[in-house]
Amino acid sequence: MTGYAETIIEQTKDRLITIKEVMARTSLSRAHVYTLVKRGDLPAPIKLGAKCSRWSEQELDRWIADRAN
């Protein structure tokens, strides 16, 4: 894990979740998740490496709650 990701986890005690977990929680396809990220409509993932991205569980939970209102 990079220093940036470690700092985020340490500061927030947040869990980083995979694209599969994001898809399960939102009922969105992988392609639609990335479309929403690109448009700025969904929180962007944290890049842990060239092929490794994770989302902040807290940010995603807030996004889901905001959409419900």
Question: What can you tell me about this protein's structure?
Answer:
This protein has 69 residues and is of the alpha+beta class. Helices cover 58% and strands 16% of the residues. The protein has four helices and three strands; from the N terminus they run H-E-H-H-E-E-H. It has helices at 3-12, 19-26, 30-39, 57-68; strands spanning 16-17, 46-49, 52-56. A three-stranded antiparallel sheet has the order 1-3-2. A hairpin with a 2-residue loop joins strand 2 (46-49) and strand 3.
Report a brief summary of the structure.
The chain is α+β, with helices and mostly antiparallel strands. It has 4 helices and 3 strands. It has a single domain (3-68), classed as Multidrug-efflux Transporter Regulator, Chain: A, Domain 2.
